[in-house]
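Q: Could you write out the predicted structure for this multi-component system? I'm mainly interested in how the pieces pack against one another.
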Amino acid sequence: MADEPPSILPDPLTKELRDRLCGVVGDAWVIVDADRLLAYESDGLTAYRRTPRAVVLPKSTDEVSHVLSILSQEGIPVVPRGAGTGLSGGALADGDAVVVGTARMTSMLSLDPDNRLARVQPGMINANLTKAAEPFGLYYAPDPSSQSACTLGGNVAENSGGPHCLKYGVTTRYVTGLTVVTYDGEIVELGGFGRERGGYDLLGVFVGSEGCFGIATEIEVRLLPKPEGVRTLLAIFDRLEDAGTAVTEIMAEGLLPAALEIIDGPTIRAVEASVFAAGYPTDAEAALVVEFDGIEAGLAGDVERAVAQCSRAGAREVRTADSAEERLALWSGRKKAFGAMGQIANDLMVQDGTVPRSKLTEVLGRISEIGARYDLTIANVFHAGDGNLHPNLLFDRSNEDEVARVNRASKEIMAVCVEAGGTITGEHGVGLDKRRYMSLVHGPDELDAMRRIKWVFDPLGRMNPGKVLPDGPDDGKEAP
Amino acid sequence: MNPVADLLSQRLSMAQVVDGFETERWAICGRVPQAVVFPESEEQVAEILSLSSEEGWHCVPGGRGSWLQGGQPPEGVDVLLSSERMNEISAYEPADLFIEAQAGALLGDLQRATSECRQWLALDPPGGGRGSVGATLAVGTAGPLEAGFGSPRDQLLGATLVTGDGRVLGLGGRVVKNVAGFDILKLVVGSWGTLGMITSATLRVHPTASMDRTLLFGAPDPGASAALASRFAQAPLPLAAVELLVPGDEESGGGASRPLVAVRILESEDAADEAERLLAERAGVAPVQRLEGEHSAAIFANVGAMEEGSDLVLRLSLLPARLPELVEITSQLGGLYDPSAGWGMRLAAHAHSGVLRVMIAKMNRGEGWADGAKDLLSDLRRSLEAEGGSLVVSQGPPELVGLLSAWGELGPAGSFTAGIQAAFDPASVLARGRMPQ
């Protein structure tokens, strides 16, 4: 952002150190020249930019272990990085840190359809796992919106969600085992399907640790059988509150859709004004996508009940899709929302609060009021079924005053979510960006407990330093 | 009053502390506590644990006392903390699909409360509805419903934990999607009271399916039934549970015991009909029985309660597709038990996770029995671990568990155990010895 100091190139690695790293991964995979390092200066949240000192790209668990041994002997901090699609600045390297990337670790290690398990390297792209499992009638359930680019290692680090988490749950439910490398280069196996060995759930606490505990170098995940059928419907509303009511009523009806997604009026208009136009009416104030999956024979009844609830809540129009093609058309406005907003505004600050479902309407009203007060356009895209909001604050980074207003509005939005019984991040993670909001949702004792657990895995505090816990040099700074 | 009980009763009311013979029913793995306390708030729990840290007492959270014979025995029990008087449902929001209750609330009470709003909790640990919320989470053991809904860790949204040194931590929250900070809540599930006493928990609830149907399929012998269960588990259908049930020697009225595979479907009626058709096609036979509604729920409640009265309960596991091998392995256990006592030995397996429960009514207690059993089970544990599996003694005579340990070795991951314990319980007063190292 405007008040982010210009990126200053950190000290390069010594030749001796570079040679040692090259000796492990090969000359081509130790990146030190400034032009190439630029590609690693930010993640999906481009408001933050930091150029790393070097990027190392190992190919195997052993190579990661050797690289970390070398770096830890020198006391150099390590920042793990997948595809860099994260939205919290979590993969940025500060100061003298070196990025260890998983871009070359893309292999499928084993696929076991009988046990519905896959073991993959962390650099494998999320969507590629489902592609590989498809011939066996299986798929990988967590589907973050960036699934065609994001890596499974990144998903493990962030405990990623996605539109279909409402029914299927987030990443942590599907990770059954990990091989991890800690800062000192030690290789440790966590979990593993098919065994019950007691002991603390180290696997569970590692998932979502945002690269602060170690690097996952092999990931064992559970696959699910592909649902026999899928049905999607799109309901258009003149009022956002009515879409919220429809969501509540669908859930109260005892239905459990695979996805329940809303995009609001400003987002609809952004989509329709862009090359991604999906045919949503531009004078509407909400579009609700409802998807059911499961045993074919049960779906018609579910759709019928959901359509009735949408109509009762005041939907002006409900479209249904049966074919895969029609389904994609109904989804397209939702899926392209972020891309479309990129076309109408120079910059975008996407927030990620979660609130109890029944508070959705109230919280959306307050977000809109915050937007008006700070004279900002806020476009909402959200996973309504699990109360996960993505208010997008549109701005121009060259307008300093607007940047300051975005920061203040963001903080207020987080506070509103917490006040409503929710949290500051549902799926994007804390990273660098939300560190300063952590005390909104956790007390000092809880933060202290998290810190102590981090020290168990990383006693020197050199794995992804300055992330998640609010104790780094940037703590308390208003602007990123 | 003994000194422990005396000191405690100065901090709490007299009625909240018992000692002497009354503590016998609270013996944990055969160890009788010096005092049992009944705190009524998390502040009182914190006070008891702070005092214990100062005094160096061994404390063990004991819930409602329904699961005291399970797991690895603690090194000592000076104070057992019961959750009996912290048993209220503190919040239930049907629209937000969560329920919040104190640790001593019974699962059965939560099920009753949620059923009024056509909702339910997908929690069916061994012991069923008479287990408390706190114990269910502290033990963390999944039941048959893990197949369709995940294990207890997947049902937990948030919890209050009082640490060994009396800090009150509010972990997690009330929403499913929550990644604000490290997920230390996960460490609490299955921690057997070693990190703190859980005083309340927020759990997910699910809408009740319009049809609860269980299909029972017969098979001529245990091997065939295991193969059938595996086939069902691999069916591309969203099944709630697939449980293999091999009755004991005396459970079939003197005739040959006939194994069953119970498949539970929680769907709409149309979907259940379709699933039934596809399952029968897969099995090549029609189900021998179809149970619906409360009858379907009841048979799975029985599955939950079937460990009751066992002298020994083992949990063997391998990858789920190897369930037939696992069932075959149990033929090595013949010398362990007295076939004429109770049901002898019976088996139940979760086909989706590959966990086989072996329930023995009465162990043979001839001379040197504990050493013999220890050798046999250690060998079996080693061979299962070599194949990526495990053997856990879920419940057993203290003499045997003391020799064998409830769990196997943790390996290198065990190096984190002491650090995690120290982070929550620096004076090491809580349930010391209950976790594998």
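A: Regarding packing and overall arrangement: Chain A has 16 helices and 18 strands.
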